[in-house]
Amino acid sequence: MKSYLIVALVWFLSACSAVPNLEVDFSPAAADSPVPHTRYAPVLAGTADYHPVSVKDWVESNDQVAPKEGGK
Predict the structure, then answer these.
(1) Mapped to the 3 state alphabet, what secondary structure does the chain carry?
(2) Within a 10 A sphere around the Cβ of 2, how many other Cβ atoms?
(3) What is the chain's Cα-based Rg?
(4) Are the beta carbons of 26 and 34 closer than 8 angstroms?
């Protein structure tokens, strides 16, 4: 029963508190609000081309990735 009284008291006191000021420095509705400059960035900037290549010799490819002699 006491917890209901505490909850009711807290709820009543919170209703009496002041509303916080949520105003920002610049209003989005103001015509003279500063707007940051944007720069153009192409969508495909920094991408690599992946074209088909000719078939390589599989023996040379295996030799390139094989462990070296005497190495761990």
Answers:
(1) CHHHHHHHHHHHHHHCCCCCCCCCCCCCCCCCCCCCCCCCCCCCCCCCCCCCCCCCCHHHHHHHHCCCCCCC
(2) 6
(3) 34
(4) yes
pTM to 2 decimal places: 0.25
58 Cβ contact partners less than 8 Å away, ≥ 6 residues apart: none
Low-confidence residues in the chain, pLDDT < 70: 1, 23-24, 71-72
Contacts of 6 (CB under 8 A, 6+ apart): none
So what's the pLDDT on residue 72?
57
Model pLDDT, residue 71: 59
Residue 22: the pLDDT is: 72
